[in-house]
Amino acid sequence: MEINRMKLKGIARIGVLSALLSSSIAMAANNLYVLPEMKSVGVASDDEQALLFLGMDRNGDMKGVCFALEKQAGSIIPVADINATVDNKQFMLVGIRPDHADETKELVCSLGSKADEYLIALTKSARSNVVFNFNGETRRYSFDTVSFSKFASGDKATIQQARDNYKNEIRAPTTQSKSKAGKSKSQPEANHYAAKSDEEAHQLSELKINDTWKSLSSDIR
What we know:
Blueprint: H1 2-14, H2 16-21, E1 28-29, E2 32-35, E3 40-44, E4 50-56, E5 62-69, E6 79-86, E7 89-96, E8 106-111, H3 113-122, E9 127-134, E10 137-144, H4 146-152, H5 156-167, H6 187-215
Helix pairs in contact: 1-3
């Protein structure tokens, strides 16, 4: 019952996200970023090679936690083990690797009660260390979650700073679109691409997650 109360309290605090996204303003404060195309908010890792964000469905309802990694893993297995630590408490999560638009980056999402407990811990923490195991290939990232905690509690200064940063074209590091020459796309070009493809990419990713989940054994689930 305590976990359920904490979960409801955490979700209620983060409920401010839907109202903010409806204004079509993406935000970033310090290492905090909101991703309007995913209806989500998250924080970048210390090395800016990973992004931790809320797993939201197309209606803006929270479904779990996701990670976007700058470099794609070599494993072809559609799941990954995730060992996340918050304030010395460990969370062992199973991550699903859905297909998505960018084949150079990695996307891992974790659903279910363990992901909910991890998310609740994040809303009250200052740091989280995360280790991914892609069938023997490991990745380690450290996330400063202070800004995320402030956002989850509805801190007005954090939200305002986020809006100001976005107006200055600050974007989440792992979502920067790049051309074949390695240069960042212009913002109008990137926005046009996102507007045309995000919905389709989201639908395909959701289908892949569902198909992958159904194919897992009961033990892995």
